[in-house]
Amino acid sequence: MGLGLSVLIAMKATAWMLLYLFFSRFGFTVLAIPLLYASLISWLVSIASHPSIDLPMLLGKNPDGTFPILSTIMFSPYLYFARAFSMARRFLTGEEPYSQICEGLYVGGWPASPRLLPPGNPAIIDCTSEFPRIKLFKGHSYLCVPTWDTRAPQPGQIESAVKWACRKRARNQPVYVHCAYVSKLKRLLDPGSIGLTRWSSLVFYSLLI
């Protein structure tokens, strides 16, 4: 993604603000307050996702993949937009939910339902900060590495995730690494890949060595 998350969210924040000003100009200030709130939240996410700050914990995602009620309410303009966009994008592009790299290793996008998971009761490495763990996946081994879209985790997170994945593969359990969209992880063998794709490559190469 050339522009990066922070720039794209800043553009969305600007659009919300312009809509708020437009409706306010015609006397619909009160009705337009949700637009103002969506703009302010988008600006906050844009700042927190900037590479110089990189604060995915802002959204409050728990280690078990759930979101506190307060975080869900506060960041609802961003969280629900991201989820709706993900499902719409998958529907419109028709892309496969995941790809198999080799036996027992899969990469893909956010699994919004069980049918989007690879077979074999895979262990899940969740590299998203904005998508929840679906309740139906409670029986799956799970590791949350909250990361902004187009960004990479910290070296310590990478190391612990690789060790976790290696333990699962040693037991012959499949491993599914996912970010927001499968198309990004399909580029993991591209030397020019950045952010989450580069991190995913480290996982796969470590498992294959």
TrEMBL record:
Keywords: Membrane, Transmembrane, Transmembrane helix. The chain crosses the membrane at residues 6-23, 30-53, 65-82. The keyword Transmembrane helix applies. It comes from the Eukaryota. InterPro entries: Prot-tyrosine_phosphatase-like (IPR029021). PANTHER family: OS01G0859400 PROTEIN (PTHR47216:SF4), PTHR47216. This is Tyrosine specific protein phosphatases domain-containing protein.
